[in-house]
Amino acid sequence: MPPDELVIQQTKRWILDVVVACNFCPFAAREVRNETVKYQVLLSADKKQVLETLCLLFDELAEDHTIATALLILPSGFNSFSVYLQLFEIAESLLEKEGHEGVFQLASFHPAYMFAGSTNEDPSNYTNRSPYPMLHILREESVSEAVDSYKSVEKISEKNIAFTEHKGLAFMQALRMSCMQKI
């Protein structure tokens, strides 16, 4: 299996086994089931290449409405969470600069994700700890529709924190690591 296909397969496993199975995002299952998620891998890229690819993805999603959401997966080059956060801030600025604010929004996932005020050992970080650093492009219209159709959307975060704390750090670590096994 080519390296980028392995990265995609591991990411898909993480989405199914963690994001969907743990119901961290109650809206993800529909897009996975409908196969409307685009996966783009940059095996080795610098910041400039990532931002150029992100612009291409914005354009592709603007043209092709059969793609509901896209993941730009970055297996190398952004392993440091602080370096990744700098990239994410630039990516958000680029979204605005390219005229896509209000059309798309970005979500962040990283293997070392840490919520502000949390510790590295906080199991709740695993709601956003992915196999690889990635930038998630969401259609703002879809997010609004999903939020409007879901009761108590404001409680999703609380529910996720309670779930991860109940399961514990070892469980969450093992669950994410199981996604990294070769397929």
Q: Describe it for me?
A:
- The chain has 183 residues and is of the alpha+beta class.
- The chain has one domain.
- 49% of the residues lie in helices and 12% in strands.
- It contains seven helices and four strands, in the order ααβαβαββααα.
- It has a four-stranded mixed sheet with strand order 1-2-4-3, sandwiched between helices.
- It is globular and about 40 Å long.
- The termini are close together.
Task: Give a short summary of the structure.
Helix 3 (47-63) links the parallel strand 1 (37-41) and strand 2 (69-73).
Got a strand count? 4
Compute the average pLDDT. 91
Unreliable stretches, pLDDT < 50, 5 or more residues?
none
Structural class: alpha+beta
Q: Percent of residues in beta strands? A: 5-15%
Q: How widely separated are the two ends?
A: 9 Å
**Please, how many domains?**
1
Helix content: 40-55%
**Radius of gyration over all CA atoms, rounded:** 16 Å
Element pattern in H and E? HHEHEHEEHHH
Instruction: Name the shape in a single word.
Output: globular
**Main sheet properties:** 4 strands, mixed
